Amino acid sequence: MTLNMDYTSPNTQFTFDLNCSTLFKKDDCNYINVMGIKELNTLDNTSLLDIFLSKSNVVEPHYHQNAAELVYCISGEAVVSLINPFTGELLHFPITPGQVANVPQGWWHYEVATVDCTHLLAIFNAPTPQVILGSDILSKTPARVLAHTYCLNEAMLKETLAPLKPMTFIGPPADCCEPSKTAPENVKGAMIAPANLAPVNMAPVNMAPVNMAPVNMSPVNIAPAMATANMSPYMYQPAPQSFGYQPMSVHGYYGQPYVQQSYRQQPYAQDYPAYPSAGTENE
What we know:
By secondary structure, this protein is of the alpha+beta class. The chain contains five helices and twelve strands.
């Protein structure tokens, strides 16, 4: 039971409609609803996010400083990616309906929908999920600090990060104009532009005939060499997907033993930001 809860009070809540609690909305197919103890006061150490995504949309890279996250796939398909801080590995876990992926507390991670109409449920072992977003880290850290720290061009870095908005939550943003999509058009335009070429006077060259004596070349039988050559057939490699990585097979990840190691929690108190109304669109 919830501590310090008066279960005889008329204000006691036992049900809640997540449809009335939108955390973030990109469009009608990509949005997140939230429920914690602020929405349902009889919750103890549980909260959740109800996540809806269309293909190639991403719950941006982030971490939860106060809770682990259990991601359950209700419909569609997604890949949950995380960095294991103990091994330094970036791992990818594809999940389909009925499957889960667990993200330990404080681990950097993100989710990508690989089909339309993907519905995920993220469950936390905390009364209110707290979060540090990648968009906040990049947009709030001064460009001069990033440039100096990682030996980058500050002017180019500022230009690159200028379109980045804090609290992106679901990317890419609705008004995104990806450079990878505009670059081919620029290249195409450059290729078809007529070149300014001056005519060249190609005077005939007086070349004396050369006596090319026939060369006695014996025929060479190359069949044995071709027969013995170890030539593997060419295998077609599919092009990478538009969102930048190849989902990995579920086999080889599920069933791996996980050893819980001690993890020192750093004190931090930043809840998910509150939005004024459930129907507000944020871009």
